[in-house]
Amino acid sequence: SFDINSKNNSLINFSKLIGLKSSKNEFNNVQFQIVKENEILHINGIIDNYNTENIDKEISKIFNTKIKGEIVMNPHFVTNHITKAKEIVVQDNNNYLYLISNQGKVIWKKKLVGKILGEIKQIDLYKNGRLQLIFVTNKRLYVLDRNGKEVKPFPKVFKDKITQPLSVFDYDNNKNYRFLVTQGNELLMYDSKGKIVKGFKYEKSSDILYSPKHYRIKNKDIIAVKTERDLKILNRRGKIRIKIKDNINFSNSDVFRLNNYLICTSKKGNLVQIDMNGSVSVIKLNLSSSHKINSKYNLVSIIDGNKLTNLNKSIDLPYGNYSDPIIFSYNKIKKFSIFDSQSKKIYLFDDKLNLHESFPLYSISNIDLNNIDKDQNLELILTEDESTIRLYEISN
What we know:
Elements (H helix, E strand, L loop, with lengths): L1 E5 L7 H4 L11 E9 L2 E9 L10 E8 L9 E4 L6 E6 L4 E5 L5 E6 L9 E3 L8 E5 L3 E5 L11 E2 L9 E3 L8 E6 L2 E5 L22 E5 L2 E7 L4 E4 L5 E3 L13 E3 L2 E5 L5 E4 L5 E4 L8 E5 L2 E6 L2 E3 L4 E3 L9 E5 L2 E8 L4 E6 L10 E2 L5 E3 L7 E8 L2 E7 L2
Antiparallel strand pairs: 1-2, 2-3, 4-34, 5-6, 6-7, 7-8, 9-10, 10-11, 11-12, 13-14, 14-15, 16-17, 17-18, 18-19, 20-21, 21-22, 22-23, 24-25, 25-26, 26-27, 28-29, 29-30, 30-31, 32-33, 33-34
């Protein structure tokens, strides 16, 4: 397999290659792949005059940064506790973690043992305003300081494989953190000093499908654990807090909060709402088994085939292979993104399913969206090619 990314006639004159009579190179963005399989040679390509410098007045390029390895994690923002601005974290296939400034400069890189599961979270371990990065790989729980140095007594090394991204709970917003590690059908809870929390006892059953979530609903602390067989609603000690009154055959999608309910979907393709007494109500949606759902900031987004809905409105998208929706909120402005891995396109919508006029946008990953500086405009980060991230600014 061999890839070429040629811009502005830098490697190959594709106008001449495909037989155009004009001597002018009419294409400024070319991606070309050759794959040899036994005695067959496959050629795939995208050839266009895509303007990546300034798509229109609504969105503009800030920088692109190339790293040495191939990107294996969606780039996303973290907070610089000194400047309060945002920076970017990304990992490559050599297991190097990079911290990149909001100007595109690599601040440091650190070799890790294994690929990071999910996204990196931040904590204030010492309650002094200084933030650390916390995450897991398949055998380690890492905590890194501002300079990429390991914070003792971390990393914690595990014999058994970690199977889901790390859950970080701050029950009372007092920075007495709890770190929940998932290993197949088992949950292990640690405190801020890396010691096991003895008061937490989880009765393991079938494999856990997603990172457990903590919510406080009507002054009740609950931990939602979605397994292959059921949904468990636990208290802080890992015991069943709420028994679901109806026998629901849940789908394999995750569980979320919507207002004062937990929501998830059933294998019949319906939306299931569970209140804090365990009572169940069902909204018939007739979703297929391949649907994907997300809910955050009291906004629901569901993609089913090429149909996108927020429960109040539905729209049709071009046929593709769509990711789980990602929901963003900044200054009460809600947006969400969908990534089509088939066409390599990002779609960005507002909460009423209006597509941002600068989209779809080319990418090979989903995005992160935030305000990374002191102006009023939002920025988004994406993966432009196998080793390059790109930052755009969106005008409000």
